[in-house]
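Morning!

As promised:
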Amino acid sequence: MFRSRSWFGGGLWKPKNPHSLEHLKYLYNVLSKNHTVSENNRGLLVETLRSIAEILIWGDQNDSSVFDFFLEKNMLSFFLRIMKQKCGSYVCVQLLQTLNILFENIRNETSLYYLLSNNHVNSIIVHKFDFSDEEVMAYYISFLKTLSLKLNVHTIHFFYNEVNEHTNDFPLYTEAIKFFNHTEGMVRIAVRTLTLNVYRVEDASMLAFIRDRTAAPYFSNLVWFIGNHIIELDTCVRNDADHQSQNRLSDLVAEHLDHLHYLNDILCLDIPDLNQVLTEHLLHKLLVPLYVYSLTRHKSQFFQTKEKKKHVSAVVSLFLLSQVFLIISHGPLVHTLAAIILKSDLDIIENGASKLLEEYTNVSAGDKIAFVQPQESLQKSLESLNETQSDEAVSEIEFTAADTIEKTTECELTDNPPSVEPSTSSNMSKTLPRPEVLNIDISNNTLNKIKNLNVTDEEKEQRLALESPLTPQQSSSDVQESLANKPFLEAILNALSSTENDYAALFSLCLLYALANNQGIKPEMLDLVLSPSQKTSTKNWYNEILVDRLIQIITLSCQTNTKVRLVTLDLSIKLLLQLVMSDGQSLLQDCHLAAIESAKEQSTSLLRNFYKSEDIFLDMFEDEYSELQKRPLNVEWLMMDSNILLPPTGTPMTGIEFSKRLPCGEVERARRAIRIFFLIRELSLTLSGQPETHLPLTNLATCVQVNNVLDLNNTDLISCTIVAKDGQKIRRFLVMDLIQIILVEPDTRKLGWGVAKLVGLLQDIEVTGDKDDSRCLHLTIHRPLSSSATNRVPLLSAKCILDDHIRCMAAKQRLTKGRIKARQKKMSQIARLLDIPTGIPHCPTPPNYTLLNVRQERTTGRGQKQKDHPRPMFTVNKVPGFAAQMRRDSSARSVAGQSAATGKRSDSSPNGKVCENGLKSREHSPKLPRPRSEEIPLEDMRSRNASLGKNVTCLPIAIQERIDVTITNTPPLSDTSPVLRKSSEETSFTSPQNQGEPKPRRKGQVETV
Amino acid sequence: MSYAYLFKYIIIGDTGVGKSCLLLQFTDKRFQPVHDLTIGVEFGARMITIDGKQIKLQIWDTAGQEAFRSITRSYYRGAAGALLVYDITRRETFNHLTTWLEDARQHSNSNMVIMLIGNKSDLDSRREVKREEGEAFAREHGLVFMETSAKTAANVEEAFINTAKEIYEKIQEGVFDINNEANGIKIGPQHSPTSPGGLAGTGGQGGAQGGGCC
């Protein structure tokens, strides 16, 4: 230490402590002795630079004199000097790392200011590193990003130099944006981060600089970059009918989303000037020419003269526009775009297009509404920006301003037809002397057009009355005409009624949904197009053309072998509700309502075909229900899925989610029928304002919960010892409810009462005997499907030891039957939901109504359950009734030696009625206490009759026969005679047809796959 | 410097859990962990060897960019591996893991390997999150778990390398589409780029040069 007392004398030898002022002095010495980078000192320099970073941060945190020395010696200038020697990536990377560490870790604000104060950092920024070196590039851009994170109103002045007019520049920003389209994704992200960090600094003069000098070149190049990306995406979709490049496509889609989110992030910073420029560029150079114009590509006469114009397919354009409206909410942008799509008519577009063509021949090509490459690359624009000083620069600004004016006038023609909303245009004209130019440029003809567009509310209403058919009386030809006049809206609506499949329809729905839900679009724009009318004169009207088409999709989806995917149906319903629900009331006209009710009827009959045809029908039914509840459709997520961009397919081998493809095989067709049933049922209930009372089949809230105290006097209790997997033994009493299995332990305070320690659903249990121990049962209780748990570890999986083998047999039987009963009960619930006739009048033994009332009370009082309140649920002596119920379904599994069952066998129906009996015993559990009228769920008999027409009478027969068949096909229930099976199978072939045709099929609908 | 593959990582987690310190600790061994020095960096690269193949790891810290949705989603998508870091001395950083994970799962490609890191294991006396809790969380969500200390460098190496191994295995299994750079994996250039003399760069081998001037 003695040798390094003074600033200058010290630092010739390396001190032992690397974290000390002495060490920095030593490093300084090394730097000053090695001005020139050579092969020999390269390693030494690198280590010196690295050590400097380390010691400076140590100093910043521990000893301020270290930093003072660094600044005093102006050590950053050494960095610059080394850098300028073209020293190769090895040294450069180290320099950049040191700088990164320096700016990342310095906590002391004053130190930071000093570091930035002498403009060395800006010199480093503008230094031309070897950017072809991946590592140099990565470190460089990270350095810039780190700096951008340090920007605030104080530090901005170190980076943006406004003092001297001639050096008016902002290298951190202008250097960074040159890499906006770098091939390396991480670099592009860093650039975007940096720009956002810059924009959010609230410094007026800096932002003015950004807007005046860099915004136009940057945004026009950005827009061109995005657009090219879109074209690539489109090519990918076109060339991939076989789902070969899902990965590539998913990247392209994600990349587009990234771009939109980036644009949205900029717009959300709410910098008026910047937003205005960005909005203009987006509308003129990308969204209108590339996205919107592509909607009508197939029939557009206005593009004939310019066939080479870039475009994407209509499907892709619908998809992309949906994304735009789902993500971006900047009012002036989305509102204008929505206006173009929803309101612009053919004349305007044609005129605009011809005007465009005129312009194309003489005026600069860069400023028309078209997707064209910017005149010069961003790099070039920015370089010229740096070169041109004072006078030149001023004239340049004027030039661009004039350009913008011309653009704006054009925009009046095609892009801003609904000048009804002043904010858009006023926003655009805020900084520009637009009006004068506007008057000079525009012909009388177009002026008239604009006048037409500036309609008053009254006029607008009149026009609306003409355009959208408000009354059912209006002929469809009018509808067609008005639509034909609005080519974009027409294209969107036409996509809804595609006959081939629902490929485009899904995107069309998404777009309409996105439009309807975008916060940036003013409600009056959507009035009567995508929302119920709010105006007094047309109150309670809705867009009938659209509703017609939506109902058409819903109807179509209920047919067998339909090509409508579940997600399309789901979205149609979502949109429909939005269109016709106003303050919780449905505005739907009778004819539309009837159509929906008939669709519901049809979906029910479709599902009847699958009722019981699968052993696991009940599980599927409940699984689908909980899936729908757990994962409601999220349109934004849907539109992130690139898979839907490829033509709809049926095979699950593509990895496409079930709801986004067509069903494959019988099981999936059943699942699909179940889901359709749920969806349309819910729609119907919502429209009629009724709550759902029948689903889910088990309302867990009304079930016994763990720690409930139960009155178990006079209840069948099975005492047993539960041996868990880890050998732990617990004494419990096993109780069964109609649907639940409950393990209780005696309540210490009340005799005869018990505390529920574990509850599960009887339907979810598995019981097996033990080969080696006749007193043992292996009991597994699975978790209910509706439980939120992601992993389906069984609730209980343990050995159950009973007192003796008789009790064990009895318990096994009761559990097995309890499971069957619980399942039958639910199956009969489903049967009622599906209007499958139940045979309660023929019930041989009267159900135990007293007992059932208990259960019913609990189910009807859903949601009002008092928790932890002792409930007298088992007060009724249920033994006789319970035994009787079990006996009736026991025919399939004869259990000998059960005294309870044998006595009443003779009660069951005569053998001659096997068919009927079989039907009864599985179609419904005996406990159906409700009057018949209540069992038919919420159904509009009128519409049902209307839709079913003549079939109404023969329907029940058909159903009965079909059910017989399904029963005979179910293994455990194979007690029906083979003869019967044969005869009923014949009828089963005809029965689906009987039900499948409630009304004549629509023309052009697809009937088979 | 040529490599067989380049893997891009991101580091995510609450602020102050020591992400950038972990990053520096791993990417540059020359920065010896010292008690009175907290030092981190937002970007780093390092070469490792797996199965006899040179693999370059590029690690990007996403700190400070949470305000912008576009940025976070882009980062997630561009990475092949993610280190999800919490601080064992601050329970709230552990509680936020679910949110981080949801975010990651939603935006990243499904093959991204996520490693859960409980950092600051040197501060055992101030521990608020038990090791078992971290293990349980990892098991539940199918992550690899490790407790590390950027201070003492304990397990830091292993955390990054194990993640790389898992990515490498996925490549061998053909799960990753390596021709698609958007996945955060890049196949190395055929020959070394311009860097002269095959120098070690700032990466791992740089440690050999530490104090070479004596």
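Chain A touches chain B through 59 residues (CB under 8 Å).

Hope this helps with the figure draft.
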